[in-house]
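For practice. Any example?
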Amino acid sequence: MSCFTQLNPSFPVTVEGKGKGQAFAVIDYGEEHNLIWVVALDDSGEIWCSPNPKVRMRSNWTMGRQVRPNALAVAAE
């Protein structure tokens, strides 16, 4: 059984190999699969379904969340 959840509000993420965007939904196909993040990319407007290991939250100074230098190559952009 799969589950589609719309995120409200969406939140900023970085997708490895694609760039920065807003995650607005998540798909859960169950125990044997990664979560799939539905992300609208900032630069191109493309919408990608990205597996969990390729998606990272962006930094947020107010919340004390900093991106590690080598967490994702595109995070340094």
User: Anything to note?
Assistant: Residues 73-77 have pLDDT under 50 and may be disordered.
